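ok new one. same drill as before - structure tokens go in, u give me an amino acid for every spot. 662 of them this time. try not to just spam alanines like last time pls lmao
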């Protein structure tokens, strides 16, 4: 059931209206009713009944049985009319029935299960470490979004909520559970870890909600999900929401839900009439420029890539092009992911470059374009990506870039997703193709830089206006203080019996001299700063370029010493032909040189003709310090050690008797 046909869930059907309208349409098209009076009568009757149906009041949240405090809070937040899935599921959920909801992301499922959960648990008591409600989500971002969406209404009913997910402090989560938490919004992995630590128990859970079950199956979380649901007491309420009902999800339904009530709204993102799909076939060299041009559009854009490194690379390239972009992927810390998502929501960042895992389930209002730089892994990933735009009935555009060899893959993916996408071949114009600009609102980087310069100029103009106002205010203050100072000086002069005008003139003259000296000092400082800025910068080696002093620069302007005429007949170039006879060439050395073969007998050759050498063990004289040939006066540790050595030498037996006995 699409959005356009889901109004029947809010407004009761009127078979009489439908029948008469069909008769009137058939009469106009086929001319089977030739009587103009009969045709006019039928048309008037259909119009009257349609007007009566239009005047029928729409269902409000108060009509669904929600607490008055929650209804008032919804009205304060501007939420008065429920979405089709909310109007269909909330009454059954309040009645305690198990719910099986099928709808794409952005159709309003969070309030569909959240508000009945809060209303059911209101007024009860919760023990420490034993929550009464649990909501399982596939990702951290989705868990935080669900908690942020339900926390205001939980505060109205006095219920405490806590997000339990990875990437955040487990100690804080355990501390909150020890104090008592009514509802846990958790990812399966972190909740299982906390339960294994003995810090939480699900034995008192009354309502268990499984949100985005198909995404959990895609991410491989179903073993943890089944392990957690097995710990929930039998007989409680189960609410399961999923965009698709495949084999794995169907097994969960059969295992944990008892006589569930099924509500289906917007089963596929591809069926949304307010969303258009386009495939741009680009050449490899044009992919980066086209991406930058589309990202430079006005409005919020989310770009999907395949890998974490790709997200960082594309975001860096966009920032270098002047686009306010940031990356979001699973390799970032939770704090960094939260800050990035907050900047994107608040408008400080216009483009979010994300991977599939990080972007699953995130909800940001105002995303009107999704750009797939890398193809999605399968049709389900494509639908999840597309679900970031055209949310809650708004319009959106989904654009996929396809290289020539990826066309078949992407077209097959579109068919599996049930999407009718228009195909465009980007020609030689590249990023500035008029068709691309019409579809996506792409802009040239020059236009982006012009906007950036224009914004900077406007900011500078605003600062000039502010500084001018401050200057005028300070000038008025200075005049007031000068007048007050002159009045006091004149009064002091009269008290001393002096001429007031002379005293005031002296003070004014001294003040003007001080102002002139301060102005001169400021001018001197400005000139010094200008000279400092004009000084040559240091090169890579830390040396200053001496341009004006005629010194020797480290570039090609250094004077050459290769020319004999410039050196007075002498040259420092080491050429073989110009060396004097006494040079140190190996072949031209004189007989007294140091060639290995021609060394004199007194040289230091390593052969047996080496002269006396004190370092060689075999050639040491008898007075050397060889261990075997040491003289009796040496420092050996044997019996030849002298008895009177000042270093404590000598044998122990040779010590004086009084020392040995002592």
């Amino acid at each position: 059931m699409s959005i356009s046909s889901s109004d029947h869930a809010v407004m009761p059907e009127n078979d009489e209206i439908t029948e008469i309208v069909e008769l009137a349409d058939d009469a106009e098209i086929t001319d089977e009713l030739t009587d103009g009076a009969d045709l006019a009568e039928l048309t008037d009757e259909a119009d009257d009944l349609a007007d009566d149906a239009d005047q029928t009041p729409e269902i409000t949240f108060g009509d669904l049985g929600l607490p008055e405090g929650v209804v008032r809070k919804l009205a304060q937040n501007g939420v008065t009319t429920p979405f089709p899935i909310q109007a269909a599921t909330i009454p059954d959920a309040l009645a305690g029935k198990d719910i099986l909801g099928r709808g794409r992301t952005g159709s309003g499922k969070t309030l569909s299960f959240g508000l009945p959960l809060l209303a059911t648990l209101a007024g009860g008591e919760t023990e420490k470490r034993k929550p009464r409600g649990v909501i399982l989500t596939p990702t951290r971002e989705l868990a935080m979004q669900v908690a942020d969406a339900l926390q205001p209404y939980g505060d109205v009913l006095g219920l405490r909520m806590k997000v339990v997910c990875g990437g955040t402090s487990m100690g804080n989560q355990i501390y909150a559970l020890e104090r008592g938490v009514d509802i846990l919004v958790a990812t399966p992995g972190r909740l299982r870890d906390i339960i294994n630590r003995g810090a939480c128990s699900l034995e008192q859970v009354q309502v268990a909600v499984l949100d985005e079950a198909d995404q959990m199956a895609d991410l491989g979380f179903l073993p943890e999900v089944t392990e957690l649901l097995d710990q929930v007491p039998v007989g409680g309420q189960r609410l399961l929401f999923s965009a698709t009902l495949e084999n794995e999800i169907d097994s969960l339904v059969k295992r944990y839900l008892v006589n569930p009530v099924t509500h289906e709204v917007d089963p596929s993102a591809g069926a949304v009439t307010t969303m258009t799909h386009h495939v741009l076939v680009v050449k490899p060299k044009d992919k980066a420029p086209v991406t930058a041009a589309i990202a430079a559009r006005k409005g919020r854009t989310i770009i999907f890539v395949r890998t974490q490194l790709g997200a960082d690379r594309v975001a860096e390239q966009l920032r270098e092009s002047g686009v306010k972009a940031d990356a979001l992927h699973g390799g970032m810390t939770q704090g960094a992911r939260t800050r990035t998502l907050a900047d994107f929501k608040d408008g400080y960042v216009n483009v979010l470059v994300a991977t599939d895992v990080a972007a699953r389930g995130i909800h940001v209002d105002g995303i009107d374009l999704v750009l797939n730089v890398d193809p999605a892994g399968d049709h389900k990933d494509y639908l999840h990506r597309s679900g970031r735009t055209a949310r809650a009935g708004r319009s959106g555009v989904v654009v996929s870039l396809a290289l020539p060899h990826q066309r078949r893959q992407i077209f097959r993916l579109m068919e599996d997703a049930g999407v009718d996408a228009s195909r465009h071949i980007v020609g030689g114009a590249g990023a500035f193709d008029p068709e691309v600009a019409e579809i996506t609102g792409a802009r040239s980087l020059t236009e982006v830089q012009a906007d950036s310069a224009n914004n900077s100029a406007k900011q500078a103009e605003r600062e000039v206006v502010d500084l001018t106002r401050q200057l005028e205010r300070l000038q008025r203050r200075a005049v007031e203080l000068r007048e007050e100072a002159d009045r006091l000086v004149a009064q002091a002069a009269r008290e001393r019996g002096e001429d007031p005008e002379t005293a005031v003139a002296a003070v004014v003259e001294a003040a003007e001299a001080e102002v002139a000296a301060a102005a001169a000092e400021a001018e001197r400082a400005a000139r010094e700063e200008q000279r400092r800025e004009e000084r040559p910068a240091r090169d890579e080696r830390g040396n200053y370029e001496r341009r004006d002093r005629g010194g020797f620069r480290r570039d090609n302007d250094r004077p050459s010493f290769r020319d004999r005429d410039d050196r007075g007949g002498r040259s420092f170039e080491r050429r073989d032909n110009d060396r004097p006879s006494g040079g140190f060439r190996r072949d031209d050395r004189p007989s007294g040189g140091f060639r290995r073969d021609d060394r004199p007998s007194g040289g230091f050759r390593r052969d047996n003709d080496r002269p006396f050498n004190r370092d060689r063990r075999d050639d040491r004289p008898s007075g050397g310090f060889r261990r075997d040939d040491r003289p009796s006066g040496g420092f050996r540790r044997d019996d030849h050690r002298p008895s009177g050595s000042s270093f404590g030498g000598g044998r122990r037996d040779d010590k004086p008797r009084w020392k040995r006995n002592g």
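The mean pLDDT is 75. and btw The CA atoms of residues 242 and 438 lie 35 Å apart.
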